[in-house]
Amino acid sequence: MEQHYDKISDTLAYFGIDYSLPYYVSTGKKRLDFPQKPFRMDYYSLCICMSGDMVIAIDGQQHYIKQFGVLLARPATIIAFQDNSEDFKMKLLFFEKEFLLKNISDPFIIERLTFFKDRSYELIHLKENEVTKLIKLMEYLDSKIHADLKFRDEIVRTIIFNLLLETAEFLSAKEVTCDLVSENPKDTYFQFLNLVMDNITQHKAVRYYAQKLYVSNKYLIEIVKKAVGKTPHEIIDAHLLKEAVVLLGNPAVNITDIAYRLRFNSVSAFGRFFKKHASISPTDYRRLQKLS
Predict the structure, then answer these.
(1) 260, pLDDT greater than 70
(2) CATH topology match: 8-172 vs 185-288
(3) Residues 224, 195: contact at Cβ < 8 Å?
(4) Alpha-carbon distance 131 to 49, whole Å?
(5) Has residue 181 got a pLDDT over 70?
């Protein structure tokens, strides 16, 4: 059966954009409505995560992309958007191979720019200043696309090559990011549990652990609930309570110091947390244990 390929115009039509040029630069505005079904691209794409994060399947492999993450994909890559944070923003560049390689004798010049060694896409994480450099080039490109120029296509083609060369320089200086999401939910749960035990005194936010596991908050909540019937927040609170009990068991450590060690904003915030989960205040707990 013949495989269906999405052209640039097909992809943009999903967002209500009527477009026919062989290249496109997005505004980078926040979008929460992404195609629900996988689609196979008929064009090259350069995507930069400007804020937030996303879980995306690329050729069947789940990846976590966070701020300043860059995805470069070539034609025939299959993309499936799976989950994204509310503050997710991505700057996009699409271009057709035939357009870029017009009058170019080497049809593999893009692949020779250190891209696509053993797969149809590359994922890298850049520094903020590196991303800023690429974004400025994309904005300059966008201004030329919308300008009334005699040699517009030639100028656009040159700027796209410049973008690819800059990206290739960044790629050659870094290891390729392989933020694969575990295909086994139980593995992810046990990884989460180990992370909580190792970091509970420093980090209490679910988002921190989700980022460490390269998954979205939503995905982590789903797999933890499926594994033990509790939310990640409940797991974190349970381990935090254990740490609090251990510290309260040491008379040499005062309650103010305990609140500080467990990263609470105030002693009263720690007191409310402890009473909520232990049904007793820290001071009364010590008194009952004859520790004060």
Answers:
(1) yes
(2) no
(3) no
(4) 9
(5) no
Average pLDDT, the chain: 85
What is the C-alpha to C-alpha distance for residues 32 and 137, in angstroms, rounded to an integer?
Answer: 25
Please give the residue that has the higher pLDDT: either 32 or 1.
32
Q: For residue 32, what are its two tokens?
A: 């929460």
Read off the pLDDT of residues 70-126 as tens digits, 9 standing for 90 and up: 999 988 788 888 888 889 999 999 999 889 888 777 666 776 676 665 567 888 899
Residue type, 161: F
16: three-class secondary structure by DSSP:
coil
Please compute the mean of the pLDDT values over residues 230-254 and round it to a whole number. Answer: 88
Spatial CA neighbour of 141 closest among 48, 43, 45, 25: 25
Task: Give the side-chain half-sphere CA count within 13 A for 173.
Answer: 10
**Taking the domains of the chain in order of start, what are their residue ranges?**
8-172, 185-288
CATH 2.40.50.100 is the classification of domain 8-172: no
3-class DSSP state of 243: helix
Residues across the chain: 292
232: its two tokens:
């990640």
Residue type, 225: K
CATH topology for 185-288? Arc Repressor Mutant, subunit A (1.10.10)
Predicted confidence at residue 290, as pLDDT, reads: 67
Cβ–Cβ under 8 Å, residues 15 and 31? yes
Task: Write the single-letter amino acid at 152.
Answer: R
Residue (of 79, 19, 17, 22) closest to 47 by Cα position: 79
Structure-block tokens of residue 79: 């993309």
Q: Which residue has the tokens 């013949």?
A: 2
